[in-house]
Amino acid sequence: MATLVRPFKGLRPTPAEAARVAAPPYDVLNTEEARVRAAGKPNSFLHISKPEIDLPAGTDPYAPAVYAKGVENLNRMIADGVLMRDTDAHYYVYRLKMGDHVQTGFVGTASVAAYDVNRVRKHEFTRPDKEDDRVRQIEALNAQTGPVLLAYKANMEVQAIIDAVSKGAPLYNVTADDGIQHTLWRMNEATQIARLTQLIDAMTALYIADGHHRSAAASRVAAARRGKKSSDSADYFLAVAFPHDQMRIFDYNRVIKDLNGLTPDAFLARVRERFDVSQASAQVRPDKPTRFGMYLGKTWYTLDIHSKLIPAQDPVARLDVSLLQDNLIAPVLGIADPRRDKRIDFVGGIRGLGELEKRVNSGEMAVAFSLHPTTLEQLMAVADADQVMPPKSTWFEPKLADGLVSHVLD
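Below the sequence we write its predicted structure tokens.
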């Protein structure tokens, strides 16, 4: 019977090449940004994850030639000894350090069968075009190169195993261009590997934090290959899992182009129907759920939603992003579908509240809202209820690196 996770024979850079190979995730850079980032770096993993950078400008990133170029680059880096594959199956311990924040988890492969029955739990819709791209990429490379970011409920014994491994010498300790430190150890002890497998398998569920398209694509590849190959490696997908209490979600803030025909005074009057509004003397970074910051006319306000408007049970409707959407953005500003309406934009909290002020002060936007970050507990509650988060609810930092370890489908 399939376990929830299992070790694998990682394809990874040699220690001498790790810093040159490690790259940002494929989906956080556009083609031109990736082209600049990889310039003069022939062994950057971007040549595998965004191979259109090696083709003429304007090349469709979904063209067959792009996937073929990725295969060519992968084969070259293996032939040149830049990438090598472990001969035995391992878990790998992965630590991310961003400023004072540290989180340490493990790299393994997660069960597609568990994903298919919602034991690896989702909280987002996927887009077919993005799924198709990941399917084509996995099939072309015969490997999963972009890990899915998972959360598990913190467990003391799992942490003890991870801590023991991380006391040893790491395979790599790489500081990326953005200052984030990526450290990787290999778990070698058979007893530790077996026990970690048992402990994770005893958990009710794992939770996808980021990587819904990658996991959905892995499920499709596994279904297509089932019964056609002797190996079952496609029945598992590459994942990095962290304890929920170490992961960090930033706020995901909103900016709106206009006040829906209202004057600022009329708009404020409408807001006061559902929120307690008080003028602030400085930027408002909400210090608790159900509190919001609003920047309007070069002035910050604190908004506290009336308690009677907070649903008692519904895990989606109770989210701050939902409370703001359902009680202000939709009824007052007339934006019913934030996924498609061009009048709304979203600003990751990593960019700071100054970015909200800049976009309003420039006249590009009329009003901005700062939110308290969604918590991992809220995300897990939504996933447990088999529901879907509203768009732009979570912004995870720090980001994983691509290229430090990949999963080959034998």
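DSSP finds 13 helices and 21 strands in the chain.
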